[in-house]
UniProtKB/TrEMBL annotation, chains A, B:
PROSITE patterns reported in the protein's UniProt record: HTH_TETR_2 (PS50977)
SUPFAM superfamilies linked to this entry: Homeodomain-like, Tetracyclin repressor-like, C-terminal domain
Taxonomic superkingdom: Bacteria
Protein's name according to its UniProt entry: TetR/AcrR family transcriptional regulator
Gene3D superfamilies on file: Homeodomain-like (1.10.10.60), Tetracycline Repressor, domain 2 (1.10.357.10)
Lineage of producing organism: Bacteria, Bacillati, Actinomycetota, Actinomycetes, Kitasatosporales
Domain HTH tetR-type residues, every copy: 42-102
Pfam entry (one): TetR_C_11
Keywords noted in UniProt: DNA-binding, Transcription, Transcription regulation
Keyword Oxidoreductase: no
UniProt region (Disordered), positions on chain: 1-42
Membrane spanning residue stretches: none
Compositionally biased region (Pro residues): 1-19
Length: 228, 228
């Protein structure tokens, strides 16, 4: 069983779940697409987005053209142009599809456990082979549309992770006015910094270590509360 | 007076200081370059690296070619090919030159102050215009040689910041076995994550906030010590 998409785009399965199409917010759905969830439109989208992911990990952003995607997906190029317009639109839809899942953060019973589980998913995503997450992050430096979609994806993931902080507040582990986003960024940022920017080999201890230090800081009121 | 290069490549001044050439370790200095610090070789290097930075911020990685750099720098293209070989070599030398300075972290008298000062330099570097730091990070996703040079640069910066942790240990603010690198990454990673990957507008409170939370976690033993 593959893990659910973590707070990185995804770990192994680039295909959106069947519900992703129906879950799309209207503004990310080109008006020309006929919406028949589970039907031909959904199949074409899955084929096209799989082709984008495959080409991206194989040849990077430079290998991505609408024509190459259409050929790889086995669909007509005018279908791709009409629905996704260009490479930026394709990349954004890969990210929107990845975000259109039912992912929820693990509930382990305590804050450090929840943050460790989240960080383990991030580590798995960032060190997965093929490196789709890494390739999407790299592509976000080439396409503004992909950058905006990546930001939407992460904002949504951090939003869902707010549940981790709410549970910890309810258990009395954290001050009630803890800034969830700041705590979550503090807990997860060392993973992204080490693996994406510093390009350090994955350290299996880092997820728990970064989770523990953020939880200690949070309990001490670093993200709100009397000492914040 | 411009600030010293922060833990990001640099904030405003892309020119290496006069000492940078002499300070180069042997392996980053192409063997064909005749080393006459302060002389013609140093001047040519400065002109060429300034041209690389200018072209990079103006047109991104795609605007960088050896010929364009030579034309912009007003030096013969064979000089550039001979000494830097290719775009990767040019980018790596920009980063090596930026690292060849006398930068040291500020000494404010306490750990939170030192980490805040460091984070303020990082925020300034990442939000500087022209966005040379941002452009170099983006280029590191295009060139393995630039990626390695960026990693060298940051590793060296974190190494120099070890002084911040040593001082805090001597003052009794931290356990003696504090892992300096982990603490420093925890303190600085939220800046990089928010500004480079999440692309959040610069938040002037973030430097102090991230510094305070890392210092609280460190004092609680999160990076070593009895509770680590």
């Amino acid at each position: 069983m593959s893990p659910p998409p973590p707070a990185t785009p995804f770990s192994e399965s680039p295909s959106p779940p069947p519900s992703a199409e129906a879950a799309d917010p209207p503004e990310t759905q080109p008006t020309s697409a006929r919406r028949r969830p589970g039907g031909r439109t959904a199949r074409v989208r899955e084929q096209v987005l799989d082709a984008v992911s495959a080409l991206l990990v194989e040849g990077g952003y430079d290998a991505l053209t609408v024509d190459a995607v259409a050929a790889r997906a086995g669909v007509h190029r005018t279908t791709v142009y009409r629905r996704w317009k260009d490479v930026g639109g394709l990349l954004a839809d890969v990210l929107d599809a990845a975000g259109g899942d039912g992912w929820r953060p693990a509930d382990t019973g305590d804050l450090t456990g929840d943050l460790t589980a989240l960080n383990q998913e991030i580590l798995a995503g960032l060190s997965a082979r093929p490196p789709i997450t890494e390739a999407l992050i790299a592509a976000s430096f080439r396409s503004d549309e992909a950058a905006r979609a990546l930001r939407r994806f992460w904002d949504d993931r951090y939003e869902r992770c707010g549940a981790v902080v709410e549970r910890a507040v309810r258990r009395g582990e954290l001050p009630a006015d803890t800034d969830a986003r700041r705590l979550l960024v503090a807990a997860t940022a060392p993973l992204y910094h080490e693996l994406v920017l510093l390009r350090t080999p994955p350290d299996p201890e880092l997820p728990a270590q970064a989770a523990r230090s953020a939880a200690l800081a949070a309990a001490a009121g670093a993200f709100g509360g009397t000492r914040g």
